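P.,

For your records, the input lines for the assembly:
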Amino acid sequence: MKSNKDYWKTQDYTLHANFVSALAQEVMQDLAPQRGEKILDIGCGDGELGAFIMEQGATVLGIDSSSSFVEAARSRGVNTRIEDAQNIQFEDEFDAVFSNAALHWMPRQQQLITRVFHALKPGGRFVVEMGGDGNISLICRSLTEILAENGIDFAARNPWVFPTPDEQRKRLEKVGFNVIKCSLRKRPTPLPTNVRGWFDTFCNEILFDLSDTDRGEILSSMVERLRPLICASDGTWTVDYVRLNFVAIKP
Ligand code: BEZ
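Structure tokens returned:
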């Protein structure tokens, strides 16, 4: 079940998820943008990383399916378009295609990878960090349990895909990429606020058809279910992120 509404609120993202760009060192090092390069940023969000890439002298096109993010990125001076990366139609256009913390929102991974392959120039690189196998497993388990208690099947509305390195490598090689890196690492991440803020930022789509009261009650139960698992005695909430990083080259 899905609605087409834009559920992203840039203010919530800035407040509750400011770590997303701040923790992007590995993927940025892998990308190593060069002056004069043309780079596509998939799921550009509020444009913070796109603006950083531009500071290195590259040209950036950011795409995102959220109109509020596209506007936020534009206000930072990043050239952006509302577009679903799974449907891009570029041919031999970019020196690099880059994405941080966005690909796991795209269920049609093989189609996306095929479109990216076409969008790259020969020799171009596809450089990604995304959620990988085991990502946010405590959150997913609690969502499964609490939604089931309320007669809702989380699996049927789970918007995320968290591949293993093996699965992703196979998808990349299938279209002809040379995979030079594809690895998983645990990255437990302390939240700047709390897990309720995290839910308000990232889970609106999952519970879009519930009344405000029902959604509020479910989210309060989620917070209490997770408190003993991910909240330390000093009140810091830490989410069990697992990152999949890959670099693939179009021959
Ligand atoms: C992630 O970055 O892994 C993520 C963020 C929000 C929801 C799901 C996954």
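Two observations worth noting. The chain has one domain: 10-249. The first helix runs from residue 10 to 16.

Regards
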